[in-house]
Design goal:
Bound molecules: protoporphyrin IX containing FE
Helix content: 40-55%
Radius of gyration: 21 Å
Strand order of the largest sheet: 1-2-10-7-3
Distance between the termini: 48 Å
Strand content: 5-15%
Number of domains: 1
CATH class: Mainly Alpha
Number of strands: 14
CATH superfamily: Cytochrome P450
Shape: globular
Length: 411
């Protein structure tokens, strides 16, 4: 059956659409070609315009005064009739605009700089070795997502924040539930507002951390945040908790999706895997291609502060646009053969980390840990193949494969 624009626009509000990548990307290609600034009015969501071209997404990202994050930083469902909208108890960087955003981002921006993040190189290499050793112990067959890719980035987050390894299971559960909320395999089994329950649990946990780092400051990111000053006053507890929440969640599922989606892509393109195994110096460019090809963050939104024209379409003041990072990352006007996975792609102007004022704070960390993983895996790999079809997560926000069955030989 021929795909219509009317059907195509529905992919952004349908969590299962992201789980069927070929159909999702076919819908985005049609929209880029015929309706790149597409009005979407679907039951259960406030209307918005979906941007699928790299150029339009960048135009919005370059003008943060015209396009703000508050009050609708990302797509979410409308509350049920009669229900109160979920009033999130924490406000994080992604909900803020200048001047608050600038103030709060400054707190950790130096910590996330490449030169500082390089301090985690040795620890990343050690954790990557542990992850690949674990693959070897599993004896040649595993679910690469649940048994390897989920765990490794969370150990890095624990190291970054200065948290003990014993806290691993708790953090794993919380971060997965936060982004897996649309997927029945991952969502928490509670009545009522699952997201709120999740945030409250985070709140209790991080409140203890703030108290500890105020009493005993250390050389970790948790101490930098707990002891930060905002306008000369100590940062508020809610704001500090918001900071920990954004770092723990933004830094986990994104990277595990990139690592497992990247491996699934390599196994689906055996010529590219062979090329990388023959030339491991290609790991950095292969990793960039994984970020582009997987695009773990599916969308953020912006709201127009005054009437704007994008791609010939007038968006009224207060109108919201959805930035589709995966769609922009397959834009044929920017990427040659956009649907091909090419470990040596150059140039690769992907927008998997966004751009501009809200550009991903964790970019250097994500690169460091993903490269560390593949720098360890690729030279030890004698053979690898898919042992079944990868299964993708239902999501409206962050995701990638939730099962990647693989068969391999390592040395
Ligand atoms: C492959 C992994 C990752 C991807 C694809 C990714 C992607 C993104 C994207 C698309 C944004 C929004 C950018 C925009 O609005 O233009 C973002 C923001 C953010 N990311 Fe990442 N991210 C990744 C890893 C990380 C890591 C490891 C951390 C930290 C440990 C992190 C922390 C953040 C934070 C704090 C923000 C909010 C920045 C702001 O609003 O100012 N991310 N990320």
């Amino acid at each position: 059956m021929e795909l219509t624009i009317n059907d195509a626009v529905r992919v952004f509000t349908d969590a299962s659409a992201y789980a069927d990548e070929p159909s999702f990307y076919a819908a985005c290609a049609l929209l880029r070609r015929e309706c790149p600034v597409a009005y979407v009015d679907v039951k259960g969501f406030e209307p918005f315009w979906a941007l699928t071209r790299h150029e339009d997404l960048m135009a919005v990202e370059r003008a943060p005064a015209l396009w703000v994050n508050a009050p609708r930083p990302a797509l979410s469902r409308k509350p049920q009739d009669g229900a109160k909208p979920a009033d999130l108890p924490v406000r994080t960087l992604v909900q803020m605009d200048a001047p608050d955003h600038t103030t709060y981002r400054k707190i950790s921006v130096d910590w996330f700089k490449q030169t500082n993040i390089a301090r985690l190189s040795a620890r990343s290499a050690e954790l990557a070795k542990r992850a690949v050793d674990h693959m070897a112990e599993l004896g040649g067959e595993c679910d690469f997502f649940t048994e390897v890719a989920v765990n490794y980035p969370l150990y890095i987050i624990l190291a970054l924040l200065g948290l003990p390894e014993e806290d691993f299971p708790r953090m794993l559960k919380l971060t997965q539930e936060m982004f897996g909320i649309e997927d029945p395999d991952m969502a928490r089994e509670t009545e009522g507002d699952a997201l709120m329950a999740n945030l409250l649990e985070f709140f209790e946990y991080f409140k203890g951390l703030i108290e500890d780092r105020r009493a005993n400051p250390r050389d970790d990111l948790a101490s930098v945040i707990a002891n930060a000053k905002v306008d000369g006053e100590p940062i508020g507890v809610l704001e500090a908790v918001g900071y920990y929440v954004i770092i723990a969640t933004a830094g986990h599922d994104t990277t595990s999706s990139a690592i497992s989606g990247g491996f699934a892509a390599l196994l689906a393109h055996p010529d590219q895997l062979r090329r990388l195994m023959n030339d491991p110096a290609l790991v950095p460019s292969a990793v960039e291609e994984m970020f582009r090809y997987v695009s773990p963050v599916k969308q953020f939104m912006r709201t127009a502060t005054s009437e704007q024209v994008l791609g010939g379409v007038t968006i009224p003041e207060g109108g919201a646009v959805l930035l589709s990072f995966p769609a922009a990352n397959r834009d044929e006007a920017v990427f040659a053969r956009p649907d091909e996975f090419d470990v040596a792609r150059d140039p690769n102007r992907h927008v998997a980390f966004g751009f501009g004022a809200h550009y991903c704070l964790g970019t250097h960390l994500a690169r460091l840990e993903t490269r560390a993983f593949y720098n360890e895996l690729i030279p030890r790999l004698d053979h690898a193949e898919l042992a079944g079809e990868p299964e993708f997560m239902r999501t409206l926000f962050v995701g990638g494969p939730k099962h990647v069955p693989v068969r391999y030989r390592l040395h």
